[in-house]
Amino acid sequence: MREILFKYLAKFTTLSAEEQKAIVDEIVVREYPRRTVLLRQGDVPDKCYFVLKGCVRQYSVDEDGRETTSNFYTEEQAVTVFNRHRRDLASEFSFECLEDSVLVVGDLVVEKDMYVKHAQLESMTRRMIEEMFGRMQDDFAAFVSSTPEERFKALLRNRPGLIERVPQHQLASCLGMTPESLSRIKKRVRRGPDEADLTPS
C-alpha cells in the first residue's frame, strides 16, 4: 500500500527515489478496526489521516441528538479538520471507521518538523489540499443546485462503489434525503426512464 504514497510523491515533488524512500520510511501507517472513532465531536484534533484502505465517515450530532453524515472518505482521500483559522479549535465533527481501515497517520504537533526536514513535503501537502478544496467547492455547488435524484446519479457516476460499502441511512443523510426517499430513487434509477414512464403514478 505504500506504493500509493510513492505515487503522490512522484506526482507532486521532484524528489529522488532515495529521498522519497526516506520520507515513506518515516510515515506512520496504522490499521484500525471497524467502528474505531478517530476523533470525537468537541475534541481538539491533533492528527490527520490519509486513507490507504477502508472507509471513514464524517458526522455530527446536534443539540437534539439528530445525527447528520456529511462525508465518506475512501482510498486515497485525506481525513482532516480545517479549523486553525478559528479561535475555538474543537472539531464540529466525529470521524469513525466504517470498515477495517489502513491509514497514514500524521501528527499535527510534529508536522512543522517534518516540513523543515523535507521541504518539498510541505509543497506536496499544500497542492493536495488545494486539489481537495477545489473538489469540495465543486461538489458543494453541485449539491446545492441539484435535486435529490441528481445527487444520487452523481454519486453513481463519481463514487459507484460507495453505495455498497456504507449503511443506507447514512448515505441518505449525506445526500440530504430520508432513507425512504433514497430507496424510491434507487428503484426508479435502476428501472431506467423507459420502465419508469410505464409505471402508474
From TrEMBL:
Identify the residues that the record assigns to the Cyclic nucleotide-binding domain, covering every copy: 11-57
UniProt keyword annotations, A-Z:
Activator
What CDD domains does the entry give?
A: CAP_ED (cd00038)
Q: Quote any Pfam family the record assigns.
A: cNMP_binding
Gene3D superfamilies for this protein: Jelly Rolls
The reply on keyword Signal is: no
The source's superkingdom equals Bacteria
**Name this protein carries in UniProt:** Crp/Fnr family transcriptional regulator
Supply the source organism for this entry.
Cohnella xylanilytica
